[in-house]
Structures are given as C-alpha cells and as structure tokens.
Amino acid sequence: MKGITRERPKIDRIASHGLHDAALARLASIVRAADCGRPQDAPEASGLLAISCGLSLDFSDDHEMLAHGRVLYDALHAQRARVPVTQVPGPTAE
User: Fold this and answer.
1) What is the tens place of the pLDDT at every residue in 32-69?
2) How far apart are CA 65 and CA 56, in angstroms?
3) What span, in angstroms and rounded, lies between the C-alpha atoms of 22 and 38?
4) pLDDT confidence of residue 55
5) Would you say 65 and 52 are in contact if contact means Cβ atoms under 8 Å apart?
6) Measured between alpha carbons, how far is residue 49 from residues 65, 69, 82, 87 in Å?
7) 14-43 exposure pattern, b = at least 16 Cβ within 10 A, e = fewer
8) How far apart are CA 71 and CA 79, in angstroms?
9) C-alpha 41, offset from chain centre
10) What is the pTM of this model?
11) What phi, psi does 76 have (nearest 5°)?
C-alpha cells in the first residue's frame, strides 16, 4: 500500500481515515512505538511488542495468531476509550 513505511505503519493509515476516534489514535501511537522500535514513545509499547513476539512463537498458523492477537488490540482500544490519557498511570520512580 502506498504510504506505508516503518515510520508510518498501516495503523496510522487506518486511524487517519476520518474515523475521529481518539482511542484509535492513541492505539495507533502505541502500535507505532512498538513497530518502529521506539518504546519510549508509549509506555505500553514494550508490553505490546513482547506479547506480539510471543504470539508469533506460539502459533505457526497466521490466521490463528491474528485471531488471538485481535483480542489484545481490542482490549487496548477499549482501555484507551475509557480512560483519559492524562489519568493513565506512568512508570513509578524507584
């Protein structure tokens, strides 16, 4: 697809099609950070990347892996839709 690069993954194209869904835009930033190797851009990115890598190791069938992974993305979207980004707790200082 035209316009999809490592710096502009498919999730950005989905989120930019006039859906006006703030939770989807927040989810896009998490996916972009995980996909582009910039976990510092979204606190959830490291966890998303770890779980995604684990799914790819657990399932040899891509369709089965996607079915299980969809639950993860749906859950992240639901969480982003219900909690304002300013109220999500960040990492604690040690």
Assistant:
1) 899 888 889 999 999 999 999 999 999 999 999 989 98
2) 7
3) 21
4) 93
5) no
6) 14, 11, 22, 23
7) ebeeeeeeebbbbbbbbbbbbbeeebeebe
8) 12
9) 12
10) 0.66
11) -65, -40
